[in-house]
Amino acid sequence: MRFVWAVAAFVLAAVMIATGIAQRTVFQGPKTATTAVSQPAAASYTLIDGAVLNRLPGSQTLRAAQSGTIFAAYARTSDMKSWLSDVAYTSVTLNEAGKVVDTVVPPTAAGPDGAADRDPAGSDLWLDQFQQDDILIQHLQLPDTMSVLVATDGTKPAPAAISVTWSLQTNTPWAGPLIAGGSILMAIGVFLYILGLRSLRRRRGPRRKALPPLPETEPIDISVAAADKGVISAGPASTRTPLTRRRTFAVVPVLAISALLMAGCSADAWPQLGASATPTPTRTVVDPSGVQQPAVTPSQADRILARISQTIASADEKQDAKLAATRLTGAALAERETNYTLRGKISGEAALPAIPATGVKVVLPQAYDGWPRTILLIAEQKADTAVTSTIMMMAQQDAWSQYKLSYTGQLEAAELPDVAPAYVGAAAVQPDSSFLVMPPEKIAAAYADIIDHGDASASAGAFDTHADLFLKGVMAKRKEQLAEFDKTAAKADKDAKSSKTGSLTFTALAGSAPPLALATLESGAIVAVNVNETETVKPTNADAVIKLTNNPRVQALTGVKESQTGFTTTYSDQLFFYVPGVGSGDASIRLLGYSSNILGAKVVSKK
After folding, report:
1. Domain segments of the chain as ranges
2. Cross-strand partners of 574
3. pLDDT in tens, 80-89
């Protein structure tokens, strides 16, 4: 009977194991699904919509093939369409039936330069980009709000052979139990078979016979007896030992096969008996409905800053103002242009501080789907034991433009206002906003009045001047310059036998660069403005002459060594303030950072 059960166990085990293996092989189905993207026209760009990328769940693998360099990038769909709005492109989307369709979209807008084609590589809009020769393979996992752009160089047709592949989840929850159960049944069958053999051998073993007559007694050899001692057993060894060995080798292969089969079963080969995890609702930080997306991501901001830094470093080395203008604007560009002029005429004139390429600690992008867009960055630099931070404001004017640095300065504030995380972004504050204790468009003029009049200024009460290192430095410099001028003028008066031969005056005014402002969490704003400080020295005696004896900068910028009318020197101040909101309980405007550099010099015109 044991043999019958053993055979039944063998058969059932073989069926179960074979079925389990078949589920993992011939019955499992394809592990990937691929959709080919056609190119109906010779358009330079192909835009694959996020709905197509998420047509099936799981990660996406983009493949494109064509002779030459292939370009691909991904970004928000709205940004992609804005960038492509002035050219014809192939749009790959899903129709109402969920089928992939492609259409040629004609231009709907005019680009800034009127160019129909342009190289897509290097745009600040892309969250990431890839370039490979002949064949491009890139693994992605993008949400349906993002799209992929495929092209070559922007002039040649986009690759015709494009496909998207998804990895399919092919679960076989009964493969593991079937293989495991079959292995157990196989072991039980082997065990029953061994028991059957053992019982059969016991029933059919050798029968006992009558003992033969005893031989004649002979002397016993003690040495032989000692050698044979311990080998006497109940039966012949040949009838027992082979059975034990066969039993051992019969079980080992079964266990080995079971282990190998079980090792090939992954987690998707077993049923999920436990209840699936249910997400626990948490408090929403920001209501996503109606909220616009932040202009950039932190990694995108890092890449943009690195590009700006590289371009400005090259421009500084070559003293190339046109190259600098591709990444600078406003006060930041004007100061650089003056520095290039001075370095070209004065040996040993130092370059302006470099734009940091790394070390970004704070990213505050404007949450805005349109243009222009503004970003606030704070980057930290370490040199030996010193640690400095640079605060910057940059803006992008339209979808085709690169971000340009408008304001930059050294961060001086020990404490920063609380700002929204980068994935939320901040709203831009309008120049005439009445929600702040002072509109951004009036801050530059108000601060300039404090520079000129100190505590006597009507705006002195609106600013926290006690911790303002920049204001204290300006006051100290003016006092020092006046003392030096009076000393020099006194000597000139004595030589000319005149009571007064010249005068030195200071004036501060709002600069021409427009303010940039982003909101903080306390209903306030970080505002960047430009103030110009002017020093005017001119003679008060008709016979007096102002000489530039110890002022090579003014001499280099004006091209003269002396003047009977005098000279005017202008310095540009880039200033960052925290401006509280109305009713916040903190009415003082605080300086956060600044930079100040010479902007220009000219001869005072005759009246």
Report:
1. 1-29+170-200+251-259, 35-157, 298-603
2. 530, 595
3. 999 999 999 9
